[in-house]
Amino acid sequence: MKRIILVILLVGIAGIAGVVRSHSSSRWPLHISVDKQSAADVRDEIRKSLELAPGARVEVSGINGWLKIETSDGKTADIFIERTGESQEVLNRRKITIDSTPAGLTIRGEKTDGGFLSRIFGSSPTEHVTLKLPRQISLVARGVNGSVTVGEIDGAVEVHGINGKVDVAQASGSAEFNGINGNISLGLTQLEKGVDIHGINGNIELRLGETVNANLDAHGMNGSVTSDLPNVVVDKSHHGSYSAQIGKGGNSISASGINGNIRLTRMMTGDGSHLGS
Fold first, then answer.
1. If 194 and its partner were Cys, which of 54, 181, 240, 251 is the partner (CB 3.0–4.6 Å)?
2. What mean pLDDT comes out for the span 189-215?
3. Which residues of 23-48 are buried (b: 16+ CB within 10 A; e: fewer)?
């Protein structure tokens, strides 16, 4: 009798396992197929050209993707924005606003007034912004969920709240970086007001022209400060604090709350020589 009961139990367990296996194998491939078909299959573009006066202020904010800026000696600004999402409904959850005058250009990404659940739980489209701008501008980039790459500009730069690396080929006058989750590379041809770098989770490379004179003060660092510049000695007063005089000294390069290293080096020209040599 016990043997018969045991046989019945084994047959029942085998049957249940077969049903579960059959159910899983019938649904799993269907799930994968749907995901592949629905991924990033809707796309739209924004293209615009306009003229900017020398010294114009350009501000880009709230972008869910990377930002790339090329520069030239002309006056024309070319804007190209590509947006992709799983559906048109996903694209509709965000919008890009462009406002411009000869003295300034503002590009702003933001959520639309969709339903509560879609705003909280719905996916957002990816936005890639490519700009070709005049060199003679000042630049502000804030709230970018991706890398920021900037060519040579003859003006100040401010970068805040970036989730990705930041690379600025050249700026002049002043620079400010705050809340960056990624490495920073900055070239400075001259320094008129100072550099402020705070709340950085990554390494920092400062490429300085030969005419830059400044005093470096770094504190609250989880990393070190090194210099490849001639005749520049980095002093370490106590743990996490460093100072250095660059050239004749002068305007401040201030850094704090850095989770990474700072490296001072000479800016190079396109032919590999030192800038200003």
1. 251
2. 95
3. eeeeeeeeeeeeeeeeeeebeeeeee
d(CA 214, CA 104): 30
Task: With 0.85 as the threshold, say if the pTM is over it.
Answer: no
CA-wise closest residue to 185 among 267, 63, 98:
267
Residues with Cβ within 8 Å of 159's Cβ and at least 6 positions away in sequence, in order, are 140, 141, 142, 148, 166, 168, 176, 177, 178, 180
DSSP string computed for 1-30: -HHHHHHHHHHHHHHHHHHHHHHHHHHHHH
Backbone angles phi, psi at 31, to 5 degrees: -65, -45
- Of the CA atoms within 13 Å of residue 237, those in its CB half-sphere come to 10
Q: How far is CA 33 from CA 41, 87, 229, in A?
A: 14, 16, 57
108-122 residue pLDDT tens: 999 987 655 555 556
What is d(CA 81, CA 97) in angstroms, rounded to the nearest whole number?
Answer: 11
Q: H/E element holding 118? A: helix 116-121
Q: What is the DSSP letter of 145?
A: S
Burial tier of 49 (Cβ tally within 10 Å: 0-12, 13-18, 19+): exposed
3-state secondary structure of 170: strand
User: Which residues touch 57 (CB under 8 Å, ≥6 apart)?
Assistant: 103, 104, 105, 137, 138, 140
